[in-house]
């Protein structure tokens, strides 16, 4: 049987959040209450929003920040239930101090991810939340972030962090100049059931075993992004059948079908900073890739 391999290139969006504190959330007052969109806001409120937006622009593409703010503050928070109408383009332009083009791009991102339905000339409505974790493969973000953006709680279990000489594990051979590496393995669980088994390798030159042990909360990629240590990754997806070792991690005796993601993450200079091998239950994760015509 002929096998066709598809190589996915995942890029970190500009600044990759840089670990900076998030901008103030439009639509909230200083006491935490919700301020309904209004076209008669005071100059002081408009000035505050303008300053908040200027900080957003300095870190990431504005449409990305707006999309994620809309997702977290309007949809995942439960403020708007499935079937509720989203604020209009004009209201969102006023809230964020952004152009209609930017707002439309942000809303299109929510539509592509399955969170809203857009009816031209009528508006946008919130859709029922997907049960599986949806991910755009072109974004360099962790499974934990994917889950949070899908409104799904994902837990980490069976964590093991060990230091190895590079030649102790053949998967660490990609770090040609490293003397030692840290291997971090763990399960990912949804509602108490294992949905993924993930093993990461990080060379000592990038992060020490002690540092990883102290700061690891579930995602190696998140640690690298917080330190501006990851720029892009090459990811290969392969369907596999769980062998005896994988069955043990997933708590099953069946030859379950899995998706294996093999990923090499690099920094701005092209040096490999992380190798990740992940095995996922396909009914728990939905990966999406937008394909555009040439020219």
Which word captures the global form? globular
Tally of individual helices: 8
Strand order of the largest sheet: 1-8-9-10-7-6-5
Strand content: 25-35%
By DSSP, the count of extended strands is: 11
Please tell me the CATH architecture of the largest domain by its name: 3-Layer(aba) Sandwich
Task: Compute the average pLDDT.
Answer: 79
User: Uncertain regions: pLDDT < 50 for 5+ in a row?
Assistant: 1-6, 13-58
Number of domains: 2
Query: Which structural category do the helix and sheet elements fall into?
Result: alpha+beta
User: How does the major sheet shape up?
Assistant: 7 strands, antiparallel
Write the CATH homologous superfamily of the largest domain: Chorismate lyase-like
Helix content percent band: 25-40%
Structure description:
- This protein has two domains: 61-126, Arc Repressor Mutant, subunit A; 133-288, Chorismate lyase, CATH 3.40.1410.
- The two termini are 33 Å apart.
- The chain has eight helices and eleven strands.
- Helix 2 packs across helix 4.
- It has 295 residues and is of the alpha+beta class.
- The strands form three sheets. It has a seven-stranded antiparallel β-sheet, sandwiched between helices. Strands 2-3 form a two-stranded antiparallel ribbon.
- The protein is globular and about 60 Å long.
- The longest helix has 17 residues, at 43-59.
